[in-house]
Amino acid sequence: MFMFVQIHESLPGTSTPPDVDSLLLNMYLLWVVVIYSFTGIYGKQETRYIDDTFGDSVTGAMPFYHGSWLSVSSNCPSCTGQLKPDFTQLHNGTYHDTTRHENDEAIPEIDFSFIGTSFTVYCIVPNENRPTSTSFMVDGVQAPSFEYQPNSSSTFAYSFPVLTQKDMVNTEHKVQVVNAQVGAVILFDYVEYTFDDGLPDDVSTTSSQSKPTTSTSTTAQGEVASSPSSVSDHSSNSNPASIAGAVVGTLGFVAVAIMITLFIMRRRQRRRQLQSPESATYPYFLDVLPRRTETGSNSDNAFEDSTYTYTYDTTSGSNTVREGNMAPPPPYWSPSRWAPAVRTAGTKERSRLP
């Protein structure tokens, strides 16, 4: 939502004309809103990961583990205990394992945070005699839980999505993953989240990620569907063309803003100068009447006397002028052109202006 600025200047007693400055300013503000709207809509979506062992693939932030957890990797085959998943199908070949016991001092829990618009928590779901029961808190709000009751099959589900949330505000979010049931197991692998950098999309530089295709289930029973055998992690690289385009676009935006501002200031300054009393042009009147009156003939002016007789009618109150037998005076010089002599009352003699 935005507001157009209306600026009107008019002389007293006159109607307000369309203000060109106001129209230009409104167009500029509309352009700003449209540019930023499209930037928000078509921001570049970047996929990032939070690994159970190596943390955030971009920021390096690590998840925090509370309670009893076992860090398992391909470098420690003996750390797997009874569960022996295929390390080649794990994200970065690592995972964290926990089993909740009744006498645990602290409930097993994972805390992590990220900035983005969506996220998915991926776990390894073992199809053995131990269930999986996981509850979640997202930004302090209870999220749907995940529960799975295994059967007799020995199949593992790798990169299984146990929680997915989308259409989130592109700000920092905090997530808690809790082992909610005594005897339940959690094999945490990684988190995938989407970060919006606010820049226009560039198809050629979109991060290449092979994502798991299994669907999220809050309650499952029996053998779960197998997931893709591997997950490839390729961090997106910055494209110099995108950076150059953003810089050029910003500079062009600033240049247009400066030009519009200078144009509006110049127009207003010129308008004030035209409306100021000092610069206003007023017509001035010439004194065409003679500056002096002389009797007889004047050799300097070379004008002859002309006789004008005024007759005043007392009944009607009107004046009539009757010219005598004398010829009218010749034209005299004015600052612009030769003009005919002005006839006046009485017997007077014309003269040139000083």
TrEMBL record:
Keywords: Membrane, Transmembrane, Transmembrane helix
Origin: domain of life: Eukaryota
Region (Disordered): 202-238, 315-354
Compositional bias ranges of the Low complexity kind: 204-238
Residue ranges of the TM segments: 23-43, 243-265
Protein's name according to its UniProt entry: Uncharacterized protein
Organism from which the protein derives: Paramarasmius palmivorus
